[in-house]
Amino acid sequence: MNNTKNSRNVCVSQLDSVTVRFAGDSGDGIQLVGSQFANATAIAGNELSTLPDYPAEIRAPAGSLAGVSGFQISFGDESVLTPGNKPDVLLAMNPAALAVNLKNMDKGSVIITNSDAYTAVGLEKAGYKSNPLEDGSLANYRVIGVPVNTLAAGVLKDSTLTPAQVLKCKNFYLLGILYWMYGLPLEATQTWIKTKFGKKSPELAAANAKVLEAGFDYAETTEIFDARFQLKKSPVTKGKYRNLTGNEAAAYALITAAKLLKKKLFYGSYPITPATEILQTLSKHRANDVVVFQAEDEIAAICSSIGAAFAGELAATGTSGPGLSLKSEALGLAVIAELPLVVVNVQRGGPSTGLPTKTEQSDLLQAVYGRHGESPLVVLAATSPADCFDTTLEAARIAVKYMTPVVVLTNAYLSNGSEPFRIPKLSELPKFQTSPLPKVEDYKCFMRDPETLARPWTYPGLAGYEYRAGGLEKQNVEGNISYDALNHEVMTNLRADKIARVVKEIPATKINGPDEGELLVVGWGSTYGAITTAITEARKTGLKVSSVHIKHIFPMPADLGTIMRRFRKVLVPEENSGQFRMLLRSTYMLEPLGLNKVQGQPLNSDEVLCKIQEILRGN
Amino acid sequence: MEKTKLTAKDFSSGLPVKWCPGCGDFAILNMLQKTMANMGLPLEQYAVISGIGCSSRFPYYVSTYGFHSIHGRALAVASGVKLSKPELAVWVITGDGDGMSIGGNHLIHTIRRNIGLKIVLFNNRIYGLTKGQASPTTLQGSKTKTTPLGAIDYPFDPTRFAIGLDCTFVARGLDNDIAGTSALFERAAKHTGTAFVEVLQKCVPFTDKEFDSLKDPATKEDMLLRVEHGKPLVFGKDKNKGISFRNMRAEIVEFKAGSVPAEVAVYDETNADMAYLVSGLAHPEFPTPIGVLKAVRKPAYEELYYDQVKAIGNTKEQELEALLAGPDAWEMK
Questions:
Q1: Among B209, B240, B266, where does a domain finish?
Q2: When comparing pLDDT for A170 and A325, which is higher?
Q3: Which residues of chain B neighbour A311 with C-beta distances below 8 Å?
């Protein structure tokens, strides 16, 4: 740590990274304040990773433990790959937010809290017998109580806003304090406030902006804030950036794919947590040749998309686990009709409604095998919020090149989390390719491209190529209905062979660390940040461990088996009971070790590190 | 588009048609091929979409683009086709099991949206392809393989169902009434929005006697009420009976042929309430209404959708980079 002094004799400490958690009532605007803070850190040049953590209820009773909503952000230099394990700073809007989060705080960490919320009623709702700010129970933490209600009301004493409206501004007061602590710029948030509230109520906009500045000034002048922090910046690639959540990234990837194909994008979907933001984001872009269809149910959502694919447009649908189950019959249709389709499955805690707002990786086997009949399709998994863009774009590219449905697995952690996304230039984007249209006189609807085995993508409107698609088995090449026994086997094998050929699209697997040795950690999808952080930490302490991270789940990379066999042990950490491990075991006849977490919470780097230590040190 | 002079034969795929001998599906296929030819659109501008069941084999026998999808989902598939390529003529072929049972939800919502699909529902009151189980239109008391003691379910009346949902075009015809039913298909083809045509037909192996009374030359004129816009509701072999409404209840009025009394209702296909009342006429008390029961113009879903897009201004030429950047991007130098 490199300490310097600023003008007010405040110590400014240099940090690699810091983790801040905002917590309060789900109706308190915690997610909003959190994402504003995230934008400010991004503009300041930090790497960042965020994780919203909110209850399933829209508005659980105010002040209750069940109603606590959280937003965690880790920011700093390029080592930031996850939203952090335990917060260094907790911003608790009320006693319930403190009670819920304290168990995950290390001694010595900072708690900034709204002391005005510690009323008899507030304490009782949070289960406190006495006021923790006064009874000494928080002696091991650095607690800063700020009477935010009183202070915000004071700032706005001349305003014509109602007391309820004034109270709603209080979050921005605490945000102002944080901006001071971390030396972050206020401008972006002020602009945002103006755009958000300015049209509807210029007064509300002015009030929020004033309260934000007042919080900043309060921290600047009050002696209780005796430390400021400067976060190391990330050496980023030059270019234009914006913060994107995984769901937004997936939505923009679909628009991009359609543009690259010079086709419309058709997105048929039904609202389901945590995938709905894809539908909402695309709904805003209808002017860009995006056709959004909010269907009556999950089945109609995928079937309308299949219809659009049949009609020759780039078609996609999005859902979460229970929705994927409902779509599975239609996926079989897309497989046998050999139509391109992207299915973004945002995994959540299951089965059934399960933990609808929490994260998991438990739809892996459903995505790979969860269909009737022999129905292979391509499965990809995204590794970070911004990677949801690359992975979804790749899914679309494969879908149209091979005329197949492709499932993209993300999850609540990626879909709600955000990170800076560098806006790609057109020239940096992958080329999209479809099988060339044969001459009308040569055309048979199940003739195949010799390289990819894809059939030609013909569609209504193209004269001379009229054909009948359908769920019944078709005669090879000709495409008429066929009940011939051997033909069915030929077609089954062709469909499997086609998907197997997608392996050619997979780049060589990157090994993080030495390419042979004692232990290889094999991760997939959303655990990339936690595993990579753990490997870095482990190697700093001299442990000989490497990792690979798999995005292509089905088919798997051609080199994966060879790589795994170069290590004495293989560990597979995942947020399920061992589904990827089962896939690896059955594919490669290996016996990997597992680290499994099924708590609706992401694996964190400490947990992975502990497991690595346990394996390598035998403790 | 240039009018192409195609004939019904051009709309045949030439594949052997595999329905049972005597099945009404053959007649419906012929009528629809003729209707499509008469519309003057080329083959590639048609998409014929079906679900599962005997009737759903239909697309294989038509030389246009076709999609034999999965059970109950034809309307969902067709909605995706129509919304992404609104210029296409999209016909949906379904049956009483496919459309009213497993696909019931999609039928409700298709009609609600008034999306431009031409739906032909073949109603034979039985699951034929699975060999004789009760369907949602099977009449109470009917003995089928799943109702050996007689069906206890109250049946749906598809036409009344569609009118009840405010469908903008609803018609009912008979498979053997070539002139009458062909006219319904032509009207449906020209309708903007959802057009729903129920065709009553028997299933030779399982409901061979169904609708016989509507087809028997000796009885049919007393059993059928041919509704026609602007004409009085008159029926009977001698055209001596009419329907009048007193306190919103239907009554049969008898009169001397040729002198229709004023109390006999004059049919108005644009009147939703009248259409609903007439659709409720049922045997044995009343004749079965056939013809165009409802036809109103209401903006179709695809029209509303693309009007909105037009209103916000098509920015499809916008640079991809600008689109991805949105309003919040910042520059890192």
A1: B266
A2: A325
A3: 47, 80-81, 84-85, 88
Residue A137 above 50 pLDDT?
yes
Per-residue tokens: A167 = 């109270």
Instruction: Kindly provide the b/e burial profile for residues A420-443, where b requires at least 16 CB atoms within 10 angstroms of the residue's own CB.
Output: bbbbbeeeebeebebbeeeeeeeb
Cβ atoms of B260 and B242 within 8 Å: the answer is yes
Cis peptide before A274, with omega less than 30 degrees from 0?
Answer: yes
**What's the total number of domains in chain A?**
3
Residues B239 and B129 in one domain: no
Q: What is the pLDDT of residues A304-321, one digit of tens each?
A: 999 999 999 999 999 999
pLDDT of residue A6: 47
Instruction: Supply the range of the domain harboring residue A356.
Output: 242-428
**A381-418: pLDDT as tens digits:** 999 999 999 999 999 999 999 999 999 999 999 999 99
The verdict on a CB contact (< 8 Å) between B63 and A466 is yes
Q: Using only C-alpha atoms, what is the Rg of chain B?
A: 22
Residue A452 is assigned to a structural domain of this protein: no
Mutate which of A299, A310, A335, A389 to test chain B, going by most B C-beta atoms within 10 A?
A310
Q: Does A256 touch chain B (CB under 8 A)?
A: yes
Q: What ipTM does the predicted assembly reach?
A: 0.97
Query: How many folded domains does chain B comprise?
Result: 2
CB interface of A with B, residues 19-58, below 8 Å: 39, 42-43, 45
Which residue range forms the structural domain that includes residue B237? 232-266
Residue B13's domain is classified under what CATH number? 3.40.50.970
Please check whether residues A132 and A222 belong to one and the same domain.
Answer: yes
**CB-CB under 8 Å, B85 with A313:** yes
List pLDDT tens digits, range A253-301.
999 999 999 999 999 999 999 999 999 999 999 888 999 999 999 999 9
Question: Do residues B74 and B184 share a domain?
Answer: yes
Instruction: Answer whether A239 sits within 8 Å of B331, measured CB to CB.
Output: yes
Any chain A CB within 8 A of the CB of B318?
Answer: yes
Burial of B254 (0-12, 13-18, 19+ CB in 10 A): exposed
Q: Which of A241, A304, A470 sits opposite B67 (nearest CB)?
A: A470
Whether the pLDDT of residue A1 is over 50: the answer is no
CB-based contact B79:B110 (threshold 8 Å): yes
**pLDDT range class, residue A4, cuts 50, 70, 90:** very low
Give the Cβ contact number of residue A27 at 10 Å.
14
Q: Do A287 and B44 touch (CB under 8 A)?
A: no
Interface test with B, best of A41, A263, A266, A303 (most B CBs within 10 A): A303
> Both tokens of residue B299?
């903006």
pTM (predicted TM-score): 0.92
A295 and A318 assigned to the same domain: yes
What's A105's domain CATH number?
3.40.920.10
Q: Of the residues A206, A231, A256, which one is the last residue of a structural domain? A: A231
- Domain for residue B309, yes or no? no
Whether residues B204 and B127 share a domain: the answer is yes
Cα distance between residue A312 and residue A465, in whole Å: 12
pLDDT at A619: 54
Task: Write out residues 226-245 of B within 8 Å (CB-CB) of A.
Answer: none
| Per-residue model confidence (pLDDT) at position B317 | 53
CA–chain centroid gap for A570, Å, is 26
For residues A215-240, average pLDDT: 84
Mutate to test the interface with A, among B4, B11, B85, B312 (most CBs of A within 10 A): B85
pLDDT at residue B1, as a whole number: 45
pLDDT digits (tens, 9 = 90+) for B162-219: 999 999 999 999 999 999 999 999 999 999 999 999 999 999 999 999 899 999 999 9
- Identity of the residue in B68, B105, B332 whose CB atom sits nearest the CB atom of A472: B68
Q: What is the number of CB-based contacts under 8 A between chain A and chain B?
A: 197
- Sign of the CA dihedral with A400 first, then A406, A412, and A418 last: negative
Residues of A in contact with B68 (CB under 8 A): 468-472
Which residues in A lie closer than 8 A to residue B82 (C-beta atoms)? 307
Which whole-number Å values give the CA distances from B88 to A41, A42, A387, A471, B116, in the listed order?
50, 47, 37, 22, 10
